[in-house]
Amino acid sequence: MTADPSLLIDLLTGLHPHGAPPEEIGTxxxxxxxxxxxxxxARVAPSADNAQTWRFVVVQSPEARADxxxxxxxxxxxxxxxxxxxxxxxxxxxxxxxxxxxxxxxLIDVPIALTQLLLAAQELKLRYAWTLVxxxxxxxxxxxxxxxxxxxxxxxxxxxxx
Length: 162
Known about the structure:
- The model has no long low-confidence stretch (mean pLDDT 86).
- The chain has helices spanning 5-14, 32-43, 62-69, 74-82, 106-123, 136-143, and strands at 54-59, 85-91, 99-100, 103-104, 126-131, 150-159.
- The chain is built from six helices and six strands.
- The chain is of the alpha+beta class.
- Strands 1-2-6-5 form a four-stranded antiparallel β-sheet, sandwiched between helices. Strands 3-4 form a two-stranded antiparallel ribbon.
- It has a single domain, classed as NADH Oxidase (3-Layer(aba) Sandwich), CATH 3.40.109.
- Helix content is 40%, strand content 20%.
């Protein structure tokens, strides 16, 4: 069996450094099955000691996304308000306390899980934009996330076309 090179080409073409340009994030809803597929892809990501130090907060309420948008970098604020869903990637540093080259594993493992989620979004042909630059305190306050949980990143997602 020969691998289809067009799949790899499509994948690499679609994976922009921060996803789609924010103006391409639309309002078309993400189907529940698609959202489950995104989270399932992240759930099976490899992690140190298989500790899975991540948790994801799915933000669908327009009001909550509007509040969350203020914690996002300026280019993603409007996309976050407009999109039907934003997923916040959180890390639980106490689950695995040892480090690798002075980096807590939570800061390595959560971005790996987020990458798995982005690969699934690409496979599902969803539009997404992501960032690891967030105002942690504002996200924590807006979503009621405890102080000991790290806010690692966020991805805003919509279906293509709207």
